[in-house]
Amino acid sequence: MQRLYKTIAFLDATGQPNSLQLPPLVLADSAFGLEPWQMNPYKSDSGPLTGKQRRFNWYHSSARVVVEHAFGRLKGRFRLLLRTHKTSWKLGSHSVMAAMVLHNYLGLENDDFLDDWAEGVEELGSHGGSTEDAGGRAEAVPLEAAMVYKEGLTSLFMQQGRPVRRNRNR
């Protein structure tokens, strides 16, 4: 099986060039823990956040908003996805994947998404997940790897310049 990784290059805390093989990550909110496959924002539990941490949180939040809007549009077009259904995990994931493929195909065919379809679509709720692999076995994942990924991303974001503020008028 081929793994998907992206190499990111950044300067470490001492200013020396560094790189990191970064796997695909799930962007979680602060209610979830840090895992090598899941990034959460920095929390201010132990005092005010540093500039680096605030910048990481800004990029993290910006990416999550894009994903939440995409799921909102998907649920607006396929209203069946608004409700939970008692089905197997595998069938449920295939149903969502089929909806994504159809949604993207319809977009390519210039089938407009009507804004009123999004009415009544709730924001995605936070659902806890487990650390099971595809075979249902619990995975042992080191927290150290997750911390290395988060620090690498934080350093990369610091080198990308100041984030541009978006106009949030709706």
How are the SSEs placed, and which strands pair?
Layout: E1 6-11, E2 17-22, E3 26-27, E4 38-39, H1 51-77, H2 89-108, H3 143-159
Parallel strand pairs: 3-4
Antiparallel strand pairs: 1-2
Helix pairs in contact: 1-3
Summarize the structure.
This protein has 170 residues and is an alpha+beta fold. The protein has helices spanning 51-77, 89-108, 143-159; strands at residues 6-11, 17-22, 26-27, 38-39. The chain has one domain.
The helix content, as a percent range, equals: 25-40%
Distance between the termini: 44 Å
What multimeric state do the chains show? single chain
**Into which percentage range does the β-strand content fall?**
5-15%
Please give the largest β-sheet.
2 strands, antiparallel
Which sequence of strands runs across the widest sheet?
1-2
Number of domains: 1
Arithmetic mean of pLDDT? 78
Order of helices and strands: EEEEHHH
Provide the descriptors you would attach to this structure in a database record.
two-stranded antiparallel ribbon, 4 strands, two-stranded parallel ribbon, 170 residues, alpha+beta
Structure notes:
The chain is an alpha+beta fold. It has one domain (6-159). The protein contains three helices and four strands, in the order E-E-E-E-H-H-H. It has helices at residues 51-77, 89-108, 143-159; strands at 6-11, 17-22, 26-27, 38-39. The protein has a two-stranded antiparallel ribbon with strand order 1-2. A two-stranded parallel ribbon has the order 3-4. A hairpin with a 5-residue loop joins strand 1 (6-11) and strand 2. Helix 1 (51-77) crosses helix 3 (143-159). The chain is elongated. Mean pLDDT is 78; it is low at 123-141.
